[in-house]
Specification:
- The protein has a domain at 129-219.
- It is built from nine helices and no strands.
- The chain has helices at residues 3-16, 19-52, 60-66, 68-106, 112-159, 163-201, 206-219, 221-250, 255-289.
- The longest helix has 48 residues, at 112-159.
- The relative contact order is 0.11.
Amino acid sequence: MEVWQFIQSTFKRTNKNWILIIVEFVSGIIMVALILIGIAIPALIMVVPAFLGDVETEEFLPYIAENVVLVLLGVLIFLIFLLAGLWLWAFITGGVRSMLLDSILKEKQFEFKTFIKYCKKFVGRIIGLWSIIGLIYCGIFVILGGIAGVLVFFSIGMYESSEAGALLLGIFGGGLIFLVLLIIGFLFGVFAAIANTYLIVEDAQVGDSLRGSLRFIKAHPGHTFLVVFLLMGIGFVVGMAFAILTMPIRVIPYIGAMFSLILSPIQMALNLYISLFGAVAYLLFYLWKQKRLGSDFQTVIAPE
């Protein structure tokens, strides 16, 4: 695998589809707005009446307990807006990746009508895929949390007889569980990235995408993790460069805070560029491994 050629091709394809960054930028703003509204409305429902009623800080929890219906309504509203934001992102994700695939294989330009068609086509499957992966990870999190609880129980039991042993068990056991959780989270992230790519390229259902992702990673573990670490490294370098370049102004009192606010849209656009770059990279990598792209990551190979 020619790493430099792969990176160059990914940059070219990303820059060629710059309009998708604008689409994601606008969608991202709408998604953030939805989540903020979902936070603001429950706050107005629950918190503001408490303060207007001169409820003291120590009386706030009893106030919440006395207004359970109000609290549940606030939580429900928050969840509705949160799910709406996530649905929007899933909706956009299917369209963006499908347009990238068309650009790579068919040299097609962005068409809004086609984009919306792809968004509608894949949104259900993408939500299903994300939900299953998320539920499995949450299940693992709960299991590890249970193990952590058992360790805490043993540590408390050991504390009277051996303080050092209890502390070592707590620190070592907790650190090991945290490390395992991080590793599993990383592996699930890789699995999800390939599964998303498989779903779009192969026009697959959720179950087929999960199985296809696992087969692909098993068949190409070295190159898969090479691509992942390349993307992580590029993202880290770009993020550090942006932070270093803007740090001299950010640290100035008052002016720095205002400047940070002004830079927020730029930082968001930069993050979206890196995200689109990653989507292109996974598509190019998958198509190359499936022998649908040449070794230059540019030449389309017609199926036999």
